[in-house]
Amino acid sequence: MNYHDLLARLGEGSAHPGGFLSTKRLLEQQQLPQGSRVLEIGCGTGRTSCYLARSGCEVTAVDSNKAMIEQASKRIAREEAEVRLLHADACNLPFEDDTFDLVFIESVTVFTEAAVALKEYRRVLRPGGKLLDREMILTGADSTLLRGSLKALYGMKTLAREEGWLQMLEQAGFQNAAALDVKAEILVTLDDVDMYREVDPTVFFDDQAFYLGQMNARILERYGKKLGSAVFTGTS
Fold first, then answer.
1. Residues 40/60, Cβ–Cβ less than 8 Å
2. Which of 47, 187, 189, 215 allows an S-S link to 13, with CB 3.0 to 4.6 Å?
3. How far is CA 17 from CA 24, 60, 123, 181, 186, in A?
């Protein structure tokens, strides 16, 4: 079991900086037209995808973690949401060019080779389409120990400062690259109640799950003020 498997067993629907309340605020600000074709990459347990579908979007959701796909499938059925769900890799998306109006991601690209993934996001966006990608950023002193800790627990492959992310967006072909809602550190946020969350109760008696949870708490305590977040946006 890895950290992402743990989140799936916990039924966690918003394990990203700012929580689900920040997700809703961001999407409300976008005022997406009814029928917008939206791709959520790294959909996790499907909470945001179902929210988008209820908002009138035509939603396709993908995740590379099979445990997350299983949880998302159950949630989609419980919420009776119209979401197309696929097991897929962010760096090799199974879609034609120029397919979506919006590509939406939260705390996923850091776990990929970002330069490759961003080019895929750009490829599947229609001309004039938009990217919204909330990711962790480096805000404090860099170190081998910091990067090693993030890679060991989370499998993080990309860690960059705000300007580094913007440069990667531009290199991937995005226009009007910008950073929104920039936070200088990782803050613990109170989230709203997720009434469709399904938790595997055996996780609370699993020693490995306990260890992963403890490691997560230690990393946030030690490095929380060196890490922040931002929503990166650009147009195709």
1. yes
2. 47
3. 13, 23, 27, 11, 7
Rounded CA separation 43/180 (Å): 21
Torsions phi, psi for 39 (to 5 deg)? -110, 120
- Burial class (CB within 10 angstroms; exposed 0-12, middle 13-18, buried 19+) of 80: exposed
Is residue 157 a contact partner of residue 110, using CB atoms and an 8 Å limit? yes
What are the residues whose beta carbons fall under 8 Å from the beta carbon of 138, sequence distance 6 or more?
159, 160, 161, 164, 226, 227, 228
| Per-residue tens of pLDDT for the chain, all 236 residues | 999 999 999 998 888 888 899 999 999 999 899 999 999 999 999 999 999 999 999 999 999 999 999 999 999 999 999 999 999 999 999 999 999 999 999 999 999 999 999 999 999 999 999 999 999 999 999 999 999 999 999 999 999 999 999 999 999 999 999 999 999 998 766 677 888 999 999 999 999 999 999 999 999 899 989 999 999 999 99
Name beta bridge partners: 38.
59, 102
Cα distance between the two ends of the chain: 37
* H helical segments located in the chain: 3-10, 19-30, 47-54, 66-79, 114-124, 144-154, 162-171, 207-223
SS3 218: helix
State both tokens at 4: 């992402």
* Residue 20, CA atoms < 13 Å, CB-side half-sphere: 19
The pTM for the full model equals 0.95
